[in-house]
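Input sequence (248 aa), recorded before submission:
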Amino acid sequence: MKRPVLLLGLLTALSAGAYVLPGGSIMRRAVGARHELSFSSLKADGSVHFYGEGVKEAGGALGLPTDRPELEADGTVYLRVPDRCRFEAKAVEGNTVASVSSGGRKRVEGTEIPALTEAVQRVCALLAARQGSVQDGREALEEYLRRLDIEPRTTSLARFGGEVVYVLGTQGEGQPQFWVYKDSFRPARLLHKDAKGTSWDVRFQDYSSAATGEMLPRTIEVWRGGERLMRFTALAGDTRAKLADTLF
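Predicted structure, token format:
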């Protein structure tokens, strides 16, 4: 009697997963979900951990020892809509490094930490962009993804952190892709290669945090070449913070 039940469950699962929204619809809903958020600025404080090669790169920049498997510093993310973002890493007894993305232009204060720069660019493009209309935003998002060699009209389903996600981009390991949570249409992952052919993977997890709500995920991770370099964890958020122009 168990086999028919198992078969029915399998058929039900296949039926439920047979239809995948087209890329244009996924992008439109993702932009719509972003537009529904009423915030115009956010300051999120937390901790930032570096791993592997990230320890060497961050340790040298922050003035901390690099002969350890993991490195911790204070981290702060500043967002001001539209398109102005700042990501800081600060050592208690060391230096402060900041990577800034403002209107698509990159700036670094201190010695650059590659993972920090990668994080702020993707956070700004996916979470702090704001156009006049959802349609304008969808077109801008599609153009952005295509610049990263992501084919946004090709879609499939996958699982990420126990949740179902839409995948925009060519299927296959190592392909440039943009992942979007199926239920909330919030960004989940962005995988791409830079001009040197280096693979980057930025992961966004837990939009249910009391600290930042849906404005910023509680956890942001940056991977390079299959190795985790950095994880930022937001511990407190302020949507009423007055952010000076000089930050950006």
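Checked by second reader. The chain is about 25% helix and 35% strand.
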